[in-house]
């Protein structure tokens, strides 16, 4: 019975692995809970939302694994070690660890010394300990790395098991060549492109040797990259490398800052995709029709590419559960046929995506769009979360008229929302009067508690806060979040 209890506890704590506050609380319940939680916490001790510089116990525990000779040498160097006796430790903590986060480790080692050279030496010693004590290495975030840790003793045994790698393009190619020699079974590869002047040869080599790459993500840093010449195709070699992995890759995210002519040659080949997050602006209508993703479940595209999105949705196999649109803060002037394209997009969703659970919509406040929106709500009964952006693409409407249009949205939601709908996000010009919002919340009674997220700061006013708290207290509102635009759009779903 005790074994069964521990197994059940383990499953529960596994579900809380990203919630450090709850896990730390569970440590204090009893010995069994503590023994079950510690291995989960220490599997990836670098991932929690805490100030690691103030958490000196983590530094002390890692330091305790150093030999006495190394401790003495580091102390003579001027490094302050906060060690505890190994005999006093309740667990062999590092034996549970499966991950390294270079940035967090850099923060922790700064506790020992503020001098760059001393920190470098201390980090090297810590990496050496990790290679000896970790039973395997599953996750590595090597952004900001300065050590070629794959050349350390026993590193090859650890790196052979690497499943997930996060890196950036500022890292010298030699690092990637070293990894390519040892890591050929990476399943998730995430790359931040922060230096377009650096060549991608090492990264390309690393991609080419992978035998089971399932998830590939490329993120351009919009703040650091310069605009290349008009004839450059910055991503060609990267795309040709992942082109060889179409039989294994089923999750693809390409956040390209610059136009990419090679994309149209490569993208249609990824027939196994379950996730597609991409800017497909360079693709023509004919090229888009060649993109047939029958297993697609998650799809994100730029808000200004509604027509392209509709074409891709047309050729999916009915498995789409999540459709997101890029942040539609305002439509650029060059976006044409927005009214027609947004109407077609709504129709394609309710025709082809009966399993949809998370959906972003942007459309103008016309009667035709409202009718199609209501039809979507009636058909898509699995819908759990909805992001709504009502875009006024003509002259700004008078405030009274705009409030009337927004009132119609709430009436539609009351009449036709599926019973599964538990979260609504309102952005752009979506604003409700106090009376309209109260009427909506009153009529929502009897349904599942609703989470509302908005970027409109009017809801921080005293009278709105009073109303919101009233309906929180009686269980109509589960959560009401008013925050800046990007956070509301990109916040992880809580459902």
Structure report:
The structure is a single chain. Helix content is 40%, strand content 14%. The protein is an alpha/beta fold and 495 residues long. Among the domains are: 1-42; 44-162, no CATH class. The protein has a 14-stranded parallel β-sheet with strand order 1-2-3-4-5-6-7-8-9-10-11-12-13-14. The radius of gyration is 26 Å and the shape is globular. The two termini are 33 Å apart. The model has no long low-confidence stretch (mean pLDDT 86). It comes from Rhizophagus irregularis (strain DAOM 197198w) (Glomus intraradices). This is F-box domain-containing protein.
Order of strands side by side in the largest beta sheet? 1-2-3-4-5-6-7-8-9-10-11-12-13-14
Mean pLDDT: 86
Report, as a whole number of angstroms, the end-to-end distance: 33 Å
Strand-pairing-aware structural class: alpha/beta
Q: What is the 3D shape?
A: globular
Largest sheet: 14 strands, parallel
Oligomeric grouping of the chains: single chain
